[in-house]
């Protein structure tokens, strides 16, 4: 038995390894998939295929990675391709390892401490500091929800000819109902399937017919035109976003609760569980950045050559694509907007709710009934209602995204410093701190984000 000791004075807890022993090489794909599934407490059936085992094993990492490509992010990437062609394609390669390192560190904090990110911060930092961060997160997420609802509604109007105002209400109400009524296992399963919609952007780009030699040249020869610096800052801020930090850690706790681990049983993690989550997070962030790459490529090959560079929203991009990329590619782009919006908005509202609940010690969790976690669900409903109100108040979604970028750009580097310090604390991390490589990458990311924040404020 592998025993995980907890030196925080709360007692002694043990975690039986739920996967194969650490010394067992998981080389065959089926064996590897089964090992990952067991490590995460997923059911393993004798007649199941390796692919099915693997799909069952994936969870918070894939959901969080896909949620990064929300309609607002899609608009940012689309406009980057429209304005600068293929010159910023290389950014997808840069952001993948940075995003993966940050999200894995957040996942490790949730898995090892048994707490969400804000709750872990409370062990190291004053509550007023955490409250400021949670408030800034709620503000930025609410603005982002408004912009995302607007993008989804515009896409639905293009498909149905029904007014976008109606769709804002429909989507806002449906997402709120699902968050309030569905149990975590059902909720997470639905979000995981929605993540597959990201492949629509790969198909859309291939449908356009790129010249792959020229694409490869653009990727391996990074260039940043002087006018592209604000866009580069926007890409970095969109990819490495504070709401993803909180959501990732809190979903690790939800995963533990969903398989019956309570209290001290959630402390510590086996090596198999850590490795399994690395695979999950690595694939989730890979999907996110692959989608980002192909979104930039699609608009670079269609809108940029025709001088359509002054688009401001994902809806405008979709409308401009129709005569240039064809109806099928445009349909994929539009359907993708709906899918990722339905995935991202619960993440945005939920991450703020977790941050406040962990800061104040409220009862929390998607499996909790609303009457038992009124404050937690109150934050979710408040952010959704405020997002809907922004659309009916005719707040410019581009302006909302600008202020979201400002708040997130200032907040993210400070959070990264807190994450790095927390993950390096051996006592808080139950003797399982993040690796030196992981810590180095996150510190480098924090420095880049501080530079991005300074550039955003000064440019």
Would you kindly provide a written description of the structure presented here, covering whatever features stand out?
The longest helix has 34 residues. This protein folds into 2 domains: 32 residues, no CATH class; 400 residues, Amino acid/polyamine transporter I (Up-down Bundle), CATH 1.20.1740. The N terminus is likely disordered. The protein is built from 19 helices and no strands. Helix 7 packs across helix 18. It has 459 residues and is mainly alpha-helical.
Please give a quick description of this structure:
The protein is mainly α and 459 residues long. The chain has helices spanning 29-39, 50-57, 60-67, 71-84, 91-113, 117-121, 127-160, 164-181, 184-194, 199-208, 212-220, 229-239, 242-258, 271-302, 314-325, 327-360, 374-392, 397-423, 436-458.
Main features:
Amino acid/polyamine transporter I; 2 domains; mainly alpha; 459 residues; 19 helices
List the helices and strands and how they pair.
Blueprint: H1 29-39, H2 50-57, H3 60-67, H4 71-84, H5 91-113, H6 117-121, H7 127-160, H8 164-181, H9 184-194, H10 199-208, H11 212-220, H12 229-239, H13 242-258, H14 271-302, H15 314-325, H16 327-360, H17 374-392, H18 397-423, H19 436-458
Helix pairs in contact: 1-2, 1-14, 3-9, 3-13, 3-14, 3-16, 4-12, 4-14, 5-13, 5-14, 5-18, 5-19, 7-8, 7-15, 7-16, 7-17, 7-18, 8-16, 8-17, 10-14, 10-16, 12-19, 13-16, 15-16, 16-17, 18-19
Number of helices: 19
N to C succession of SSEs: HHHHHHHHHHHHHHHHHHH
Structural class: mainly alpha
What is the CATH homologous superfamily assignment of the largest domain?
Amino acid/polyamine transporter I
Profile the largest sheet: none
Number of strands: 0
| Rg calc | 21 Å
Q: What name does the CATH topology of the largest domain carry?
A: Amino acid/polyamine transporter I
How far apart are the first and last residues' alpha carbons, in Å?
A: 57 Å
Q: State the low-pLDDT regions, or none.
A: 1-34
Domain unit count: 2
